[in-house]
Design brief:
By secondary structure, the chain is of the alpha+beta class. The chain has one domain. The protein contains 4 helices and 16 strands. The strands form 4 sheets. An 8-stranded antiparallel beta sheet has the order 7-8-11-12-16-15-14-13, with helices on both faces. Strands 1-2-4-3 form a 4-stranded antiparallel beta sheet. It is globular and about 70 Å long. It starts with a strand and ends with a helix.
Length: about 250
């Protein structure tokens, strides 16, 4: 599937989404990024299916656009289509909301990219350089949406992102509406993959809805650390492949 969105600075960018046959072990090229999301009640299963692939493709070349001058009498200019001005306003307002994504400093008092203190957190999964934590006494009510779980992702000791998981349609819809109110409409998928994607300069966000169960998941993350996660995972996968070839555990 392909997404066509505008970055926070107005630059058009396209994304091709494809679902990995094995989301944990699929390799990506230098331009690939992996986005984490979840859609199951089991944390173990959530993490195993969380990583899907988004291939970022810049489709607009740098250059100047030229326009031929048009001379016409003022009276001959076509009248704006009904609702055109309102639609333009809505688009500008939506674009302004997208800029909010880069304003997000982190979550739960922890800044993206900051050294992560485990005090007050419980380790849920240890995946080597990537660790998942739950915060003791976490507030699970986000606006009107009740979360089943809020998971903090830490890579090499630094706060990478936060995942939100719901377990019914009402809360999932509320979670999606919160993201739309914060960051605009985003780019919706028309087939398999994350339901909605938001990509800014520094941060990214995803929302996914399981149509069968109503479970929803959102992931808010730091793009720079995400690239480091991807590089580390790729190196680990290659090393594991060599060990497999040599018959080593």
């Amino acid at each position: 599937m392909k997404y066509h969105i505008s970055l926070a600075d107005g630059t058009p960018e396209a994304f091709e989404l494809r679902k990995a046959s094995d989301p944990i072990t699929e390799l990506c090229d230098d331009f690939a990024t992996k986005r984490i999301l979840a859609s199951s009640r089991s944390l173990e299963y959530l993490t195993q299916i969380m990583i899907s692939t988004i291939k970022r493709i810049v489709v607009v070349s740098v250059g100047a656009f030229s326009m031929s001058p048009v001379f016409a009498q003022e009276s001959s200019a076509p009248a704006p289509a009904p609702g055109a001005e309102e639609a333009k306003y809505d688009e500008e307002a939506d674009h302004a909301k997208m800029a909010n994504l880069d304003k997000v400093p982190g979550f739960g008092g922890v800044a993206f990219g900051a050294e992560f203190s485990t005090k007050g957190f419980k380790l849920e999964q240890d995946r080597g350089a990537l660790k998942l934590y739950k915060k003791t006494g976490e507030t699970l009510l986000v606006g009107p949406a009740l979360m089943e779980a809020v998971i903090y992702y830490v890579f090499e000791g630094k706060f990478y992102g936060v995942a939100f998981h719901t377990n019914d349609g009402q809360d999932s819809l509320a979670l999606k509406n919160i993201l739309v109110n914060a960051f605009g409409t985003g780019e919706n998928s028309t087939d398999e993959g994350p339901s909605t994607v938001w990509i800014a300069k520094k941060n990214g966000a995803l929302f996914d809805l399981n149509q069968s169960t109503g479970d929803g998941s959102a992931f808010l993350f730091d793009l720079k650390i995400h690239d480091a996660v991807l590089a580390g995972q790729s190196a680990s996968e290659k090393a594991a492949a060599q060990q497999l070839i040599q018959g080593k555990p």
